[in-house]
UniProtKB/TrEMBL annotation:
<dbReference type="GO" id="GO:0016020">
    <property type="term" value="C:membrane"/>
</dbReference>
<dbReference type="GO" id="GO:0005783">
    <property type="term" value="C:endoplasmic reticulum"/>
</dbReference>
<keyword id="KW-0808">Transferase</keyword>
<dbReference type="GO" id="GO:0008654">
    <property type="term" value="P:phospholipid biosynthetic process"/>
</dbReference>
<protein>
    <submittedName>
        <fullName>Lysophospholipid acyltransferase 1</fullName>
    </submittedName>
</protein>
<keyword id="KW-0012">Acyltransferase</keyword>
<feature type="transmembrane region" description="Helical">
    <location>
        <begin position="87"/>
        <end position="107"/>
    </location>
</feature>
<keyword id="KW-0812">Transmembrane</keyword>
<feature type="transmembrane region" description="Helical">
    <location>
        <begin position="208"/>
        <end position="228"/>
    </location>
</feature>
<dbReference type="Pfam" id="PF03062">
    <property type="entry name" value="MBOAT"/>
</dbReference>
<dbReference type="InterPro" id="IPR049941">
    <property type="entry name" value="LPLAT_7/PORCN-like"/>
</dbReference>
<dbReference type="GO" id="GO:0019432">
    <property type="term" value="P:triglyceride biosynthetic process"/>
</dbReference>
<dbReference type="GO" id="GO:0016746">
    <property type="term" value="F:acyltransferase activity"/>
</dbReference>
<dbReference type="GO" id="GO:0030258">
    <property type="term" value="P:lipid modification"/>
</dbReference>
<dbReference type="InterPro" id="IPR004299">
    <property type="entry name" value="MBOAT_fam"/>
</dbReference>
<feature type="transmembrane region" description="Helical">
    <location>
        <begin position="365"/>
        <end position="383"/>
    </location>
</feature>
<feature type="transmembrane region" description="Helical">
    <location>
        <begin position="47"/>
        <end position="75"/>
    </location>
</feature>
């Protein structure tokens, strides 16, 4: 782009490449709206989805980005064409391997930490898309009785055409920052089938109010981030003044540093949510109320209050990067559980490890996701104690609820420092400054959980889901 973006970059305090990306990213909203007006049926809409994604990627990251995207998409499609029986596994390892190579080559974590940007963030989302597509195509070979409900819902009986596949991978700029969604949903959307099929009553969901809400949320998130980031820089962790503070001051700063960084992600995901909603793809059905109201959960990638006020660590993945958490649950966690057996800490740790590798090969990522596995396991110990308390002892139950909330608040915000600073040296400095509390607390709870094993009463279905 030949525009002089220097003044705008200086005004908001970011680099010119980031400004270029943000302009193209915001442009996904009108681009997604135009999708609704594209003639030519599903074929025309697929062509538009693919081409608009290519153009936005080119202006955001340059020609090399589209070449990287092409490699990933080719890996998935070729494996589906030539070896359907194992295309899911082949695509998983080849696509993840290629993504890791790009992470190493571009040193993406350092670039993002220093305010730069490259195409690896988009490659991360695209990797999940091509893997899920291949796995769902492989699932189409299995007997229905061997499939879980989510597999039955998402499996592909036929191979998508190249136009459908490329449209799915690049539509609405969703490859920039998500959300991740299933190709089955995309195909039904373009063909106006399933929940998108016109009803006999002529009822059609309007995306405008939900899209406006997402835009307003994005504006608030960006304003909050720009206000907070100069006050809580990550460089403070290695400055002498930080070490001069007392324990509670350092704890407060770690909380505020994590709190500040989260607003950046809230902004990005709010823009993504708006673009998916305005296209119509974000529609997820109708409520059972009278009159029925439209739901737009397919585009939702974050529940801000759900993250900041989570009652337990188990609730955090359900509110943060929601669609990626859902992907990890369906394509990693559940598939590691042997039939007839219950999932355990191994499945949780393996899932968090895959998530760490997906983010990049930085020590900070691995430490954070191991920490979160411990954090969730420790939270489950508190929850088991809470469930063992008789209903008549409401005060004791509430004490455990508050304990789980406080535990999550402390461990999550002290753990996430490693995700932000990335390097082992800076992570150890920050963790040591608060006496490794984010590790000590969950490990202590896990040990106590092995010693104190209260009798758990019969649980309801809602409780089992937690």
């Amino acid at each position: 782009m030949d525009l002089d973006l220097g003044p705008l970059a200086s005004m908001i305090g970011v680099s010119i490449p980031v400004v270029r990306f943000l302009l193209c990213f915001v442009a996904t909203i009108p681009v997604s709206f135009i999708w609704r007006l594209v003639p030519g049926g599903p074929f025309g809409k697929n062509i538009y989805a693919a081409l608009s994604g290519v153009v936005l990627s080119y202006f955001s990251f340059g020609l090399s980005s589209n070449l990287h995207f092409l490699v990933l998409m080719a890996v998935g499609y070729v494996s589906m064409v030539f070896h359907r029986q194992s295309c899911g596994l082949v695509t998983f390892f080849l696509a993840m391997g290629y993504l890791i190579g790009c992470h190493v080559y571009y040193m993406s974590g350092d670039a993002w930490k220093e305010g730069g940007i490259d195409a690896t963030g988009a490659l991360m989302v695209l990797t999940l898309k091509v893997i899920s597509c291949s796995i769902n195509y492989k699932d189409g070979l299995l007997k229905e009785e061997d499939l879980r409900e989510v597999q039955k819902k998402n499996r592909l009986i036929r191979l998508p055409s190249l136009v459908e596949y490329f449209g799915y991978c690049l539509c609405c700029g969703s490859h920039f920052a998500g959300p991740v969604f299933e190709i089955k949903s995309y195909l039904e959307w373009t063909e106006r089938k399933g929940i998108w099929m016109p009803s006999d009553e002529g009822r059609s969901p309007s995306p405008y109010f939900p899209a406006l809400r997402a835009i307003l949320q994005a504006a608030i998130c960006m304003a909050s981030y720009l206000y907070l980031v100069p006050r809580f820089p990550l460089t403070r962790f290695t400055e002498p003044v930080y070490q001069e503070w007392g324990f509670w001051e350092r704890m407060y700063y770690q909380y505020m540093a994590g709190f500040t960084t989260r607003w950046k992600y809230y902004f990005i995901w709010s823009i993504s949510e708006c673009s998916i909603i305005i296209s119509g793809l974000g529609f997820s059905g109708w409520t059972d109320s009278s009159p029925p109201k439209s739901k737009w959960d397919r585009a939702k990638n974050v529940d801000i209050l759900g993250v900041e006020l989570a009652k337990s660590s188990v609730q955090v993945p359900l509110a943060w990067n929601i669609q990626v958490s859902t992907w990890l649950r369906h394509y990693v966690y559940e598939r590691l559980v042997q039939k007839g057996k219950k999932p355990g800490f191994f499945q949780l740790l393996a899932t968090q490890t895959v998530s760490a590798v997906w983010h990049g090969l930085y020590p900070g990522y691995f430490i954070f996701f191991v920490q979160t596995a411990l954090m969730i396991a420790g939270s489950r110990v508190i929850y088991r104690w809470q469930q063992s308390v008789p209903p008549k002892m409401a005060t004791a139950k509430n004490m455990f609820v508050f304990m789980n909330f406080s535990y999550t608040l402390v461990v999550l915000n002290c753990s996430c420092v490693s995700f932000m600073v990335l390097s082992l040296h800076e992570t150890l400095i920050a963790y040591k400054s608060v006496y490794f509390i984010a590790t000590v607390l969950p490990v202590t709870l896990l040990i106590l959980g092995m010693i104190i094993k209260p009798e758990i009463p019969t649980r309801t279905k809602a409780q089992k889901e937690e």
